[in-house]
Amino acid sequence: MSSNTKAGGDGQVVCVTGGSGFIGSWLVRLLLDRGYTVHATVKDLKDEKETKHLEALEGAESRLRLFQIDLLDYDSIVAAVTGSSGRELLEPAIKGTLNVLTAAKELGVRRVVVTSSISAITPSPNWPADKVKNEDCWTDVEYCKQNGLWYPLSKTLAEKAAWEFAKEKGLDVVVVNPGTVMGPIIPPALNASMLMLLRFLQGCTEIYENFFMGPVHVKDVALAHILVYENTSATGRHLCVEAISHYGDFTAMVAELYPEYNVPRLPKDTQPGLLRTKDGSKKLMDLGLQFIPMEQIIKETVEKKKENLKRIARDLENQAKTTLEFYTRWASCTSKLKKASSLPRLAF
């Protein structure tokens, strides 16, 4: 992939691991839209839930190749990375991260974009109380161990492993740290952030004290990956949120926009010590990313959820009709068989 800031891949090859997931699917879609050839990895090529939505994307027929890989299996990673000049790393575990980075280095990949998380930035209780959290802030590993916060711990250790590898091996790595990712879903399954919203609409009062720094639209997360890939001036970590905000801000807006759900009222300040700011993602803004505002994120997410629920209801209704037809025919056939068995048998 060329190292300039112009849009369009001109058929250049980029590999997206975790391509069937929520962020990965959007990333594949936008890369195809920009003219890239995409090598996307999935867990199981035979599982339509992982492949069908990707194969349906515009441009997929000619410029998308799917690979089945296990991030812990180095040889399977090499096959997917071969021929690509860029990497998009999703859902990393420490060993998987190092396997992918090793393959990228050995195959001469130009730049690796690692998808980390705000969970590698927070919880960070020792960060100065009067300073807005930014890319210099790291999750407190010991705090996570002491409190059993294994998700932020794994995200932090995986990102640190990536940076250590990049420094030792001279690999060009940049990182995107998304917040709570929401928006229209391309794959059939809900992601964790969408389940968070669904649980709230159902009355859950959890405040996610150690897991929230602000929402972000999934399309903006995908665009952030492309921007930091295409801009050679992009270096280091890139916080990716619409704004640094509290979960209480988010739920208050949900309640305002959708009063019919009668959602619980949560405290305004749900993340102790977290300072709010609209330009928390200034590095990405400086690269030209205009973030979709929170209100639009909520509306698109909730409306899409309604569509999905209607689709599920239709599927269940159709399944019920099919099942009823089957049992009706089965009962009819059984009745005929019983009548036939009661007929006198002919003796020969």
From TrEMBL:
Keywords tagged on the record: NADP, Oxidoreductase
Top-level division of the source organism's lineage: Eukaryota
Coiled coil: none
Every NAD-dependent epimerase/dehydratase domain range: 14-234
GO molecular function: oxidoreductase activity, acting on the CH-OH group of donors, NAD or NADP as acceptor
Protein name per the record: NAD-dependent epimerase/dehydratase domain-containing protein
Classification lineage: Eukaryota, Viridiplantae, Streptophyta, Embryophyta, Tracheophyta
